[in-house]
Specification:
Layout: H1 2-5, E1 11-20, E2 28-29, E3 35-43, E4 47-49, E5 54-55, E6 59-65, E7 71-73, E8 84-91, E9 100-102, H2 107-123, H3 128-151, H4 154-170, H5 178-184, H6 189-200, H7 204-222, H8 227-233, H9 239-250, H10 254-261
Antiparallel strand pairs: 1-8, 2-7, 3-6, 3-8, 4-5, 4-7, 6-9
Helix pairs in contact: 2-3, 5-6, 7-8
Length: 264
């Protein structure tokens, strides 16, 4: 779950969104062609994946289905409860993410968004594609936000606030020292690193680099800057290091990322 929900995702293709009526849909899926988010307002059938993961029955949940996954959808006693909405899409990033299920507190809003997305896609009025992309990003945002607020205890969040505020204000212009961040929070570096990772599920350095890479993606796709300029403007003072980190985080070089996301 952490890979999908702690990554700055770039959707490069919204394939479709469908409403799957009770009793409809094929039971066996092989080499799934797209990533998928599936919402079950009522009860979820049993999902059994080739890698051994099983997602058992629950309700009002979102299931993430990885691209290229193989799985079987089992039956439950009351098949009338298994209607769902499914959004299928492609990402610029290559994810090493297994399937997972997530139940959100804002279930009513989530169901409305899936329903609105399906209706918008079906009608295909002017601007429907942009609207569906917007709704998908909003759904992912809500999932990421809920995971963050669920695991981030108020007391620990308060302890880390000085570091987070400093990072957000200075990550584009400074080489941020982790020892300095720890001192801002009045704690030792070892404890700071441990607490930071327990709350954000990444190291401080990876957190900072994720912000820089997200900014670099925006600058690259604007097609207004050279790659060297992008490196500097996104907070990297070494062009080679920037290319190395960008490739590690996205599986693409900056030039490959531009080519994959260029819109003429």
């Amino acid at each position: 779950m952490e890979t999908f929900l702690h990554t700055q995702l770039t959707i490069n293709n919204f394939n479709n969104v469908v409403y799957v009526a009770p009793g409809a849909g094929k039971p066996v899926h092989e080499d799934r062609p797209f990533h998928g988010l599936v919402y079950y307002p009522k009860q979820t059938p049993l999902f059994v994946f080739d890698n051994g993961i099983t997602i058992a029955s629950t309700e009002q949940c979102i299931i993430y289905l990885p691209k290229h996954s193989n799985y079987r959808v089992g039956h439950i006693s009351n098949s009338a409860e298994t209607a769902c909405y499914a959004i299928n899409f492609d990402l610029s990033e290559e994810l090493s993410q297994e399937s997972f299920v997530m139940k959100l507190k804002t279930n009513t809003k989530i169901q409305t968004m899936f329903h609105s997305c399906e209706k918008t896609w079906s009608k295909k009025d002017a601007g429907y594609y942009a609207k569906c992309m917007s709704l998908l990003y909003e759904i992912i945002y809500m999932m990421q936000n809920e995971l963050h607020t669920t695991y981030l205890s108020p007391s620990h969040k308060q302890k880390l606030t000085p570091a987070i505020e400093y990072i957000q204000s200075n990550y584009l212009t400074e080489e941020i020292n982790i020892s300095f961040l720890a001192s801002l929070c009045n704690m030792g570096e070892t404890y700071f690193r441990k607490l930071f990772h327990s709350q954000y599920h990444v190291s401080p350095v990876k957190y900072i680099n994720a912000l820089k890479i997200a900014r670099a993606k925006e600058l690259i796709t604007s097609d207004m800057y050279s790659i060297r300029e992008v490196a500097t403007l996104s907070g990297f003072h070494d062009d080679c290091y920037f290319r190395k980190i960008f490739k590690r985080e996205t599986t693409l070089s900056p030039n490959e990322y531009l080519k994959a996301n260029y819109r003429s």
